[in-house]
Amino acid sequence: xxxxxxxAQNGIIKVxxxxxxxxxxxxxxxxxxxLFNTRWVPEYMRTYLQKKWDQHNEICTEExxxxxxKGQIALENKExxxxxxxxxxxxxxxxxxxxxxxxxxxxxxxxxxKHVEKHEYQLYILCDIDVPWKPDDLRDKPNEREKMFAxxxxxxxxxxxxxxxxxxxxxxxxxxxxxxxxxxxxE
Length: 187
What we know:
InterPro entries: NAD_biosynth-regulator, NadR/Ttd14_AAA_dom, P-loop_NTPase. It comes from Psychroflexus planctonicus. This is NadR/Ttd14 AAA domain-containing protein. Residues 14-173 form the NadR/Ttd14 AAA domain. There is one protein chain. With 187 residues, this protein is α/β, with parallel strands linked by helices. The protein has one domain (12-186): Rossmann fold, CATH 3.40.50. It has seven helices and five strands; from the N terminus they run βαβααβααβαβα. The protein has helices at residues 25-35, 44-56, 65-82, 93-103, 110-118, 145-158, 170-186, and strands at residues 13-18, 39-41, 86-90, 123-127, 163-166. A five-stranded parallel sheet has the order 2-3-1-4-5, with helices on both faces. α6 (145-158) links the parallel β4 and β5 (163-166). The radius of gyration is 16 Å and the shape is globular. 32% of the residues are buried.
């Protein structure tokens, strides 16, 4: 089981799109991958939980966190092999860890926590909540956007992780990210 949570090390720069629901992470990940002619990793949690909802009308439980983590890492490792110097990850295990701690009071899982600490990303892009909230089967916190954004921002600060905050339209966000990512590629 532990092997399934190992992050492949292949010299690719890994960038995480980070933040609360409906903050533009997927849209920005796709656009950045296109801009930099590379790959992006979709959010496995969304696919997993949508299937669970559609098939059984059930929501996320603590027991889902390890299968979700395994699925996320499998996708990341697969796309990293195909990436062109940089990979954009629409979420990662830290994002899943934050959600687990929001939804499941006093959530602990030593195996997941170990891999959250162990995985490396060169940059986090914290997506602001200044885009319209879009409802779907899984999103449930339209009135807690500021609180959720603060939780995600605080997690990055607490862990001393490298990040930038993006705001505005997709074009504005791309313009904010492009020079920083270009510098990362040139290092």
